[in-house]
Amino acid sequence: MNKNYIVTKSNYFIMNSSYDLNLEEQKLILTLASMVQPEDKEFKPYIFKISEFMKLLGVSNQCKYTDTPKITKELMKKVFEIEEDDTLIQTAWLSSATYKKGTGMVELEFSPRLKPYMLQLKEKFTQYKLGNILAMKSKYSPRIYEILKCNEFKKQGYIQIEIDDLKKILHSDNVYPRYYDFKRRVIEQSQKELKKMSDISFDFEEIKTGRTVTSLKFYIKVNELTALNTADDEVSATLMEVKENPIKKIMAIMCNSKITSLEAKKLNDTAKGDINMIREKYVQAQNVAKIGSIVGWMITALKEDYKTTKDNLKVDKFNDYEQRTYDFEKLEKRLLGWDDEETVKATGEEFEQLSIR
């Protein structure tokens, strides 16, 4: 169990489920979700040490260990809703929680009703590292993070959500009925936390009907340095080089595609160092119906300055969500230049040679 474990959820589940969990309950559920393997066909009893979970949350007080049974007991009581067309599903998060006295272990199992949203996902799903949400202090920040994360590559460059719909998803309509309070305590607080603690950040624009704010446009941005952050202190010096290293910056921008450092250099050379142009073409590529090699397509797009047309856009009938696929074990190695299990020192030498060529 560590902060580099991957949480996987369907986009439909993120955008169409409404629940009210406190911060500790959310972190427990997401930690459990990070233990689910993509290839699993059924939920398994997932066993972990309570002490490891508390360490992951940064809790050092031993007295807090007794809180975990209280958290899972409350979770068993909390029924939440998922809307599917004309069907409303009411289910609990956990089907069971088992504690063996004297072992400090807990065995948890998800409700089988959650299988379609977490297991055997082939398209329209979102993945992120558990560490992106663990340091958050507001209970609304993890939810807003997930909502924005699954809409990170919208064709129009933003996602617009009605205030009433957002309040419903967050279960905050009765807590902050006035928009001013909702904006200050939910939106702006989440904005600060995402920028500081996660791999994405956002700006927002208020859309008014008359004099009343009725919806928000969220403009989602990549926190490039944070996106590469790992739990290993010994590579922190290498990560700090990313900000000034165009090769690694490109790899950060294209963090959900399998590209090598040499491919990133080819893109950089083709774009003549214009990172914004590379970012633009990469976002455009997410919406093209058929692409063989992402790097080959982008090189041609950069040379010929492709423009988006209606003919080459994907036809997406599932709430306009883009498919996302990751191989994070390989991704981390590529992001850090460890394509062949090389050391950080060797990585530095490789990029130094690339920059000389």
Secondary structure elements and their pairing?
Elements: E1 6-10, H1 11-16, E2 17-18, H2 23-33, E3 46-49, H3 50-56, H4 67-77, E4 79-84, E5 87-92, E6 94-100, E7 105-110, H5 115-118, E8 125-129, H6 131-134, H7 141-149, E9 159-162, H8 163-170, H9 179-197, E10 200-209, E11 212-222, H10 224-227, H11 236-240, H12 246-253, H13 261-270, H14 275-285, H15 294-304, H16 328-335, H17 344-356
Antiparallel strand pairs: 1-8, 2-4, 3-7, 4-5, 6-7, 9-11, 10-11
Helix pairs in contact: 7-9, 12-13, 12-14, 13-15, 14-15
Summarize the structure.
By secondary structure, this protein is of the alpha+beta class. It is 42% helix and 18% strand.
Descriptive notes:
This protein is an alpha+beta fold. It has 3 domains: 1-134, Arc Repressor Mutant, subunit A (Orthogonal Bundle), CATH 1.10.10.10; 137-222, Arc Repressor Mutant, subunit A, CATH 1.10.10.10; 232-356, no CATH class. 42% of the residues lie in helices and 18% in strands. It is built from 17 helices and 11 strands. The strands form 4 sheets. The chain has a 3-stranded antiparallel sheet with strand order 2-4-5. The chain has a 3-stranded antiparallel sheet with strand order 3-7-6. The protein is globular and about 65 Å long. The protein starts with 5 loop residues before the first strand and ends with a helix. Residues 230-242, 309-329 and 331-357 have low confidence and may be disordered.
